[in-house]
Amino acid sequence: MLNGPPGSGKTFLVRTWLSENTDVHDIATSASALQDPSNPVDGAVDNLERVYDIAKMIAPTVVFLMKAMPWRPGVATRAATRRTS
Fold first, then answer.
1. Could you give the 3-state DSSP secondary structure of residue 10?
2. Which residue ranges make up each domain of the chain?
3. Alpha-carbon distance 57 to 53, whole Å?
4. Cα separations (Å) of 20 from 38, 50, 77?
5. For the residues 64-84, what does the mean pLDDT come to?
6. Judging by DSSP bridges, how do beta strands 25-30 and 61-66 pair with one another?
7. Strand order of the sheet with strand 25-30?
8. Which of 13, 45, 55, 85 has the most neighbouring CB atoms within 10 Å?
9. Percent of the residues in the chain that have a pLDDT greater than 90, as a whole number
10. DSSP letters of 23-83?
């Protein structure tokens, strides 16, 4: 687990490592992408379990759980993305 302030290079470091290890997949998502408005708590847990199920199916995999950014009007949010080799 990498932890640090925004802009410190955590994602850059892992993306660089992944670019040299093409047999490793990555899945990137955020807490907001995992939310289910109809079931806020259990829905997020269920969706996180689905992410890990997919990760197991395409292993070896690195799962990125990006920090949730506070919503601000006019600021675009990143949807869940997935890169495969």
1. helix
2. 10-83
3. 6
4. 41, 27, 28
5. 50
6. parallel
7. 61-66, 25-30, 81-83
8. 55
9. 40
10. T-EEEEEEHHHH--TTSHHHHHHHHHHHHHHHHHHT-SEEEEEEPPPPP-TT---PPPEEE
